[in-house]
Please model this.
Amino acid sequence: MIKTSRSRIVVIVTVILALVAAIIAIGLGSVFIPISDILGTIFGSSSKAVNTTIIWDIRLPRVLLAMIIGANIAISGALLQAVMGNPLADPGLTGVTSGAAACVLVIMLAAPQYTQFIPIAAFVGGLIAAGIVYALAWRRTGISPVTIILSGVAVNALCGGVIGLLTIMYSDRLPAAVQWLNGSLAAKGNNALMMVLPYAIAGWILSFFAIRKANIIRLGDQVASNLGENVNQIRILLSLLAVFLAAISVAAIGMIGFVGLVVPHMARMLVGSDYKYLLPMSMALGALVLLIADTGGRTLFAPLDIPSGILMAVIGGPYFLYLMRKKAF
Amino acid sequence: MFTVDSISIRYEQKSVINNFSFSVKKGEIVSIIGPNGSGKSTLLKAVSRLIPYHTGTVILDGTDLKSMSAKQVARKMCMLSQKNQAPSDMTVIDLVSYGRYPHKKWFERLNQEDMDIVHWALEKTHLIEYKDRAVASLSGGESQRAWIAMALAQRPLIMLLDEPTTYLDISHQHEVLELVRELNQDMGMTIVMVLHDLNQASTYSDSIVVVQAGEKAMYGTPNEVMTTDMIRDVYRMDAEVQYVQTEKKPRIHLLSTVR
Model:
């Protein structure tokens, strides 16, 4: 009982940290805005016209977008880890991200007149990738985690090839696509935010309904099915949800690795493996981590705006190696 | 109470269990024995719906198993595998509470009545003082008891155990089998288990099913089944069987492999 109340406090503290970080991040940038002005502008008591524009049109949408996407990818990773019973699973390693990216790129480069279909293309691409991974990993007795990771490698290679091919064929239209491929939040405003928000909220609500199922398949296939659960059906539903959350994130800002892998892992070290705490914790921590990555990317090397996907890879890669050294997997 | 009627199981074109029948009366302990690869575990997995069977019927408490939903089955029957792994930070009481989920709709939380049943299951398995410990920190016998407690919390009519003692040392084996007997005697729990050890099967069972190459070789009381002929035929071993008049539970002394 002591442990569960501790986990609850850790989750609440992380949520508060993320909110504080959001306010600080709004202040940081080429024009520094003190916290009192930020709060004043947001709650309507101060009205410096410049601040209003910077906060409402530029920084707040970007900060919110980073947090929403961070939360999405982290939840997606946490769900995939439950589905595959493997702490190595995440939307990047299983090929979901690159499948979604390849499909989005087809529209961006080959059929730019249909950009409104980008979210659907991302979902379809993610589903195809996940479908291939499952088809390869499916055995009569169920799904084996090792083959899932191996088929993820194959799918990633395939999608990487498609992406490479597209970038060569349409090199004239490339610059915008490169920003997107690297997972950049630069120049993302209210439009991107409004595109993602409804899907994200729907996805979060569904994930909270998935908590018990995720907890039960943690006990292993035989135990779960002995408890009257249809294990393969749970797997498919949770995977659909994970692909959905990852795909809308890819559609909005491109490929961001490691959040889906590292964040649930950190969350597990902090609050344990019960999804009642792990899922909200992944959500809050994912929001915080991607916010830090994005804010760091746009302020540390100003005026350069380093895509957060690149920063996440640079920080996440070594952290991943560190976890492997510690034999955390 | 539990009837298996001429079921056959194939695995990748190969017949593993062929036209197998047996039935279990309420309150009985039935052991399934047989050499490695004879199909005894497969049989138990099929009748608990972990793997599909192709022909035949299984009747559980008067209803055809195939006409029941997975949850309906889980409320009447539980199955415990040889080895289970709980997440490293899961406590005993958390694990045992999962046994209540077959009785809950997907949105329902556990209520006081459920927690009472969980506590009752912990008491029956003598785990009350361990309830806040992590399952992973328990000894082999204790953790097997925790999994049995989870199964008990399902409030099943029948409990299937697949080699419940395989990974345990002898004192823990004894501890688990004594618990099984206790549950049977105190609550009238019907038990079907796969065992390797012939003496354990003889000591703890009311009836024994002998499986040989996917077929039923023998079915009867320990006195009827445990014969030197059976052991020679099924296990290719010479043995001495010592009958104790008062107990009807013969002791088996294995001597040597038949060449």
Notes: The first strand of chain B starts at residue 2 and ends at 11. Chain B has one domain: 2-83+156-257. The CA atoms of residues 72 and 102 of chain B lie 8 Å apart. The two ends of chain B are 42 Å apart (CA to CA).
